[in-house]
Amino acid sequence: MSASHNTATRPASESPWISATSAYTPRKPDPRIRWFLDANECRPLPSVVAAIADEIAGTAAGSGAGLSRYPSFAALEAAIAARWGVEPARIVVTAGGDDAISRICAARLAPGASILVHEPAFEMFGVYARSRGAEVLGLRWLDGEAFPLEATIREIEGRESLGIATVVSPANPTGGVVGVDEAVAVADACARSGAAFLFDAAYGEFAEDDPTARLLGHGSAYIIRSFSKAYGLAGMRLGYAIAPSANRAAALRSCGMPYPSSTLAAVAGLAALADTSGVQAIVAAARSERVLLAERLRALGA
Predict the structure, then answer these.
(1) What is the DSSP string of 68-114?
(2) 162 secondary structure, DSSP code
(3) 113 to 79, 161, 248: CA distances (angstroms)
(4) Which runs of consecutive H residues, i.e. helices, occur in the chain?
(5) Residue pair 230/222 in contact by the 8 Å Cβ criterion
(6) What is the helix (H) or strand (E) element at residue 167, kind and residue range?
(7) Exposure string (b/e) for 246-271, b if CB count within 10 Å is 16 or more?
(8) Distance in angstroms (rounded) separating the CA atoms of residues 168 and 172
(9) How far is CA 284 from the centre of its chain?
(10) pTM of the complete model
(11) How many CB atoms lie within 10 A of CB 157?
């Protein structure tokens, strides 16, 4: 057999769906800017900073495994499960909400499948879906417009190729909010069609109407939440997915790193969950300040 024939029949060595031009590009440092509002970051709680400091001090003093051992997220997953009233086996801690999206795309999208998003959409939906050979379907949902529920259900039930339907509420970047009954209606449509429902609640703490509790018992729904926003832990890279079942959660675990984040992130997450009043104060301040900021921007002509 000739070498040329060998080369011609060799399987492709690169994924045909991966493109360097689609990579997410973080903002570049700019010394002229003091307040970065685009990423919606905030300061961590003092209680969380103290817990991290104690963990580091304990490691330095040799009083615990601390930073010298691979992290365990069992305690954090149990605390999250208790927070939502579900079994711990359904909770998958991830490296931020982005990692949860990536795992769900890997578990539920085959080449040729499609994912439904509402545009303008968080760009990582498209990045992860296309990396799996899936098509991205977009429905317009602009700031100030009602959620396009009927059009969303038509797309879900009218496309056999649909693997995932997404809803983000509050939406990034528009801030649009989906009502509880609307979210459940989308989940019901996904259940009828066999698609997965990905409900992204990264900003759920800031919503007055959060569908998460109603979706917990829905067999089609994967719920994503994050410690990056209300908890002020964007630098820790910590989020989680609530899968519709323990088996679905196990599939998500197989689609990513065995240690999705760090020991310090696990410590920070536990401390943040415990400080309910601190998080409530942060959310209340953000709700108040966003109204003032919006009024000021409009006065300036935005």
Answers:
(1) GS----HHHHHHHHHHHTS-GGGEEEESHHHHHHHHHHHHH--TT-E
(2) E
(3) 35, 5, 19
(4) 3-9, 46-61, 74-84, 96-108, 123-131, 149-158, 180-193, 212-215, 246-253, 263-274, 276-299
(5) no
(6) strand 162-168
(7) eebbebbbeebeeebbbbbbbbbbbb
(8) 7
(9) 22
(10) 0.91
(11) 14
Spatial separation of the C-alpha atoms in residues 162 and 191, rounded to whole Å: 12
Sign of CA dihedral 113, 121, 237, 271: negative
* Residue 104 CB partners (closer than 8 Å, separation 6+): 164, 196, 198, 222, 224, 241, 252
Q: 140: which strand partners?
A: 119
Residue 37: which residues within 8 A CB-CB, separation 6 or more?
none
**What's the confidence (pLDDT) of residue 25?**
75
Give the β-pairing of 239-242 and 91-94.
antiparallel
Sheet containing strand 135-140, strands side by side: 91-94, 239-242, 221-226, 196-200, 162-168, 114-119, 135-140
Q: What DSSP designation does 234 have? A: G
| Token pair in block for residue 222 | 């994967």
96's tokens: 């931020």
pLDDT score of 26: 76
The alpha carbon of residue 151 and the mean position of all alpha carbons in its chain are separated, in whole angstroms, by: 24
Give me the amino acid identity at 257.
Answer: M
Decide the pairing of beta strands 135-140 and 239-242. unpaired
The CA–CA distances, whole Å, from 69 to 59, 72, 229, 263, 282 equal 10, 9, 28, 8, 33
Task: For the chain of 302 residues, list the mean pLDDT of each consecutive stretch of 10.
Answer: 54 72 74 83 93 89 77 97 98 97 97 96 92 95 93 95 96 92 97 97 93 95 97 96 97 95 96 96 92 93 91
CA 3 to CA 260: how far, in whole Å?
43
